[in-house]
């Protein structure tokens, strides 16, 4: 059975019409050649030599233990803000300034205000790439600067190969080590650029709808910590009694290159260094995190293995150099604060047995992007290639034409196809 067919039968397309990717009768795939079992093994050398276009991509870690791929220093090309009603602004009005806690044991109460002063974003509303697309339309001249145009082939209107959210790339980086949550990523090609947008899996949707009050409160804790450590003005103080509104966001937009893939992506940034002499973004940005306090060796090991992987991937991608972590007890009181240098995290975990490796994360991401490039060839926003991954399986894909998976909005297509 072909991998993409098994993906079909597991996920019967929600009333959509799916077509199979065309492939030659002699093409061999990793899925067809591997032995069955929970661990996706690499292909036998003879089969690998006979491969043409892959129909699946293996997630087996050892395949990606090669030299670290080229990853260019991310360059901030712009930013945008979303206000308390999720309205887009092509500026930095929501950028906040870091205020270090005054005490070594801050005793911030992360539960404060959960009932009275919390406005939660409706995460049932799927925005796709819309905010990034708005930013692109507002900044096309910048993207098509003479040097950028010269470097890009004439059939690539934006001069980048991929447009996506940082969060989607974070998921790709951590995939070789992920054992719980799968993902679905939709890709569509328009004028040479691939747009990659997440589709909520059935499991993620079920989890979101079944979220307990305790879980919901713990999600608030992370935002409350941001409120204790951020000010709206460079010399301002945190407004501890204010409303926590998770609609508000400041997002950086960066350009970079992973191997031969030119990337444009955006990610939310928690705050910047309040010192006006700090370098420009992303070097002045800080990521804020909370985590349970570490009391045992086992907890430390789990923190290194699982949490630091996610923290590293999220901040490494946009070039955010520092992560400020608030460690809290079970009652939501912050008992200590520690700063991690993103570039030193891989050193911190070196003593963990069989731990994650940055090179595996980056090589997997690079190979996945190559896989998408080779599969998503039709330059037509009505065609969506849906890449699907579940733990212990390989990445597979299906092709969908004129279905509800189409995600580039008409207002974007109109601008991109008419106004040159
Ligand atoms: P923590 O990371 O401190 O838990 P981010 O750290 O990415 O800026 O996100 C801010 C906060 O949003 C998180 O703070 C957490 O409270 C909440 N959050 C983000 N993604 C989440 C997820 N997948 N599940 C639960 N909470 C999440
Ligand atoms: Mg954060």
UniProtKB/TrEMBL annotation:
Q: Where is the RAI1-like domain?
A: 72-412
Q: What residue spans carry the region label Disordered?
A: 1-50
A GO biological process of this protein is:
nuclear-transcribed mRNA catabolic process
State where composition is biased (Low complexity).
18-38
Cofactor comment: Binds 2 magnesium ions.
| Gene Ontology CC annotation, any one | nucleus
Keyword Metal-binding among UniProt keywords: yes
| Function noted in UniProt | Decapping enzyme for NAD-capped RNAs: specifically hydrolyzes the nicotinamide adenine dinucleotide (NAD) cap from a subset of RNAs by removing the entire NAD moiety from the 5'-end of an NAD-capped RNA.
Q: State the name under which the record lists this protein.
A: Decapping nuclease
What organism is the protein native to? Aldrovandia affinis
For this protein's source organism, the top of the classification is: Eukaryota, Metazoa, Chordata, Craniata, Vertebrata
